[in-house]
Amino acid sequence: MQKQSFNQSWRFYLGQPTERMWREADDSNWRLLDLPHDWSIELPRDAGQPSSSSGGYFPMGCGWYRKTFTPPEEWKGKKVFIEFEGIYMNASVWLNRDLLGFHPYGYTTFHYDLTPYLKWGEPNLLKVFVDNTHQLNSRWYSGSGIYRPVWLLVADPVHLAHWGVYVTTPQVSAQAAAVRARTQVENESETVQEVQLRTRILAPDGSIVATAESSAVITSGGEYEFVQEMTVAAPKLWSPDTPHLYRLESEVLAAGKVVDSETTTFGIRSLSFSAEQGFLLNGQPLKLKGGCVHHDNGILGAASYARSEERKVEIHKASGYNAIRTAHNPPAPAFLEACDRLGMLVMDEAFDCWREGKNIGDYHVAFEDWWQRDIASMVLRDRNHPSVILWSIGNEVLERDGRSNGAEVARMLAEAVRSLDPTRPVTSAICGTWDGGDWELTDAVFAQLDVGGYNYQWMQYQPDHERHPERIMVGTESFPIQAFDNWMSVLENPYVIGDFVWTSLDYLGEAGIGRVHFDPELTEFLGRYPWHQANCGDLDLCGFKRPQSYYRDMLWQDQARLYIAVHAPLPEGVTENITLWGWHDVWHSWTWKGHEGQVLKVDVYSSCDEVELFLNGKSLGVQPTTRQERHIAAFEVPYEPGELKAVGYRRDAAGAVKESVAYSLKTAGEPVQIRLTPDRATIPADLGSLCYVTVEVLDAAGQVHPGAENLIFFTVKGAGGIAAVGNSNPVSTEMYVGNQRRAFRGRCLVVVKANGQPGEIRLRAQADGLEGDEVVITTA
Length: 780
Hints:
Elements: E1 2-5, E2 10-14, H1 19-23, E3 31-33, E4 61-69, E5 79-84, E6 91-95, E7 98-103, E8 110-113, E9 124-132, E10 150-155, E11 158-172, E12 176-187, E13 193-202, E14 208-218, E15 223-233, E16 246-254, E17 257-266, E18 271-274, E19 278-281, E20 284-285, E21 288-293, H2 306-318, E22 323-326, H3 333-342, E23 345-349, H4 367-382, E24 388-395, H5 406-420, E25 426-430, H6 443-446, E26 451-455, H7 461-467, E27 473-477, H8 483-492, E28 496-501, E29 516-517, H9 547-556, E30 562-567, E31 577-578, E32 586-587, E33 599-606, E34 610-615, E35 618-624, E36 632-638, E37 643-651, E38 657-666, E39 673-678, E40 682-683, E41 690-698, E42 711-718, E43 720-726, E44 740-742, E45 747-754, E46 759-767, E47 770-779
Parallel strand pairs: 21-22, 21-28, 22-23, 23-24, 24-25, 25-26, 26-27, 27-28, 40-47
Antiparallel strand pairs: 1-10, 2-3, 2-4, 4-9, 5-8, 5-10, 6-7, 6-9, 11-12, 12-15, 13-14, 13-16, 16-17, 18-19, 19-20, 29-31, 30-32, 30-33, 33-36, 34-35, 34-37, 37-38, 39-41, 41-45, 42-44, 42-46, 43-45, 46-47
Helix pairs in contact: 2-3, 4-5
């Protein structure tokens, strides 16, 4: 099928328009915008919003989208479809006067056939109503609107079915790989058609390495699935370290003429799971260094751009992750494409609830009627991605303890997934029973799974292995503060294939689930307004590493590494209280003006055998930092300005130092300047292409001032504009749209968006009392 973007020049109205407004053709006073679009991120938060702490106190509501287009003459006689990657939520779609359908789930991709309703030679009106008023319907920030891209698909009457190409690699070795292509072709013409399918496989370097050709007679209104077997010699195997991608090119011919074609990207790799050997990728054991990720894109809200999804994968790779769990819903297609390309394993998840809901308006209201269609959407859309290694059918569903026929529902979902893709195991994330029931009540649901998912239950690994030695286990969620215990359990037990922390990347909503507070009487699960970020990610909302991410480096990486974390000074008698998903209130800072002489607690995270700490050249002692010490050394240091330096040592069997590494913090001077650092100097000129610009407040020596909170103003000229501004302050009341933002701990972030024209984008940052900075980003 020919695929073209349908994202430009939509009209938008926030709220419920009057009947007159809806029926009249004039929408010139509606806002003109391009997709993707999340209206909630654009609106001010307040404590009275129905989304409450779960939704980050963002407004939700309802909205209307309209787009007018005139179908070209070359579409006559063809099939025309529209595909929505994701709309949150309860989307009703019309073409002209005809209702195409209703789609309740906000996270699955769906499409409609426009052909019967198109008007030729005149404008056609596509209308979409999005209803996110029924709160609460999510336990995290959902965003609102057509937040993922929209596509038009045009094909001849004889064409490849939507998601009709399915590629598997049933046998893989270093010498050869068997590639099986199952290709579904539909005949929507008025006559019987003799159809040929020509298929070829292109290696990563573009060379043709295998071909196949088949033919079949397809009746009018019928369909046929071709099954073609090919062999690739000496294949380049896909893995996180070597993400080699092949292309399968499919051509459909009718009456000797090519009528449709499609390219499918895939990888050649083998998967094996067992309690005895764990997870094997291409025959080699691999532990999953995983993180859970919600669908939002930080300061962009729910709006999903190809670059925002790609950057999400990039920053995980840079922090040592090799796996991501898409909690708790199917992700954007661009996210999986980036995982394929960059080498990231994926647990693709379907639902946060089944028949029993957790909120009044969540997916349970649609489950009975829609689960089959939504499972099919996830699996059929995503099954060609080599990055996807596990399907998850649910997260902490209430039926996990067997209530409401939970085991039968789990069996039904698992079998539906296996019928569409038997090449990957099925899991589900299971936590303890919230009403205090015995853990063994979960056994019946576990029995329906190929891999058992454990949320916060690492203590159950060994007892469950004794009861069920055949069970393969994976930590689907874990507390950051228990990173050591969880990872040691993975390393020590072959039947535990990995651990996914909650969370690897911070997100909006579930406000303050990972907060530190100083009121021992405060027991609320989530934070009150103005808390709006979860504050539990290894990486913060802007994608910057937080202290727990550096600690995880010590557990995951073999090379000698250090990090210094300084506990914020507290008044006498005050104790920090850390929520289950939180981390100590520690700073990457030795700048504590006004606390001279006060004893500060300093933690050194270390993958070395021991560390020595120095203050202004004077040794404060040596401490071991082996596994026995959980790779942490704690020092008490009277504060004085200057340099705090840690030196780590690794010793050989004889006790001699074989390796050393140093890490230091220096007291910052007063803030004097701004520095802008774009993640890319050149970006595509395509509409919606993004550049992430890190904004730092520096002292005269060029060091980031860790306490700077200057208000920074931005101006942009040229071939783009500002898509978002933000920082990682979880209680800031500032907007994520506009041209200004305060620094938080010396940094903030600006996202610049191309307008579709080649040229330059010139971004300037200014603040009172600081020297500004300017960067030029080329759009090419």
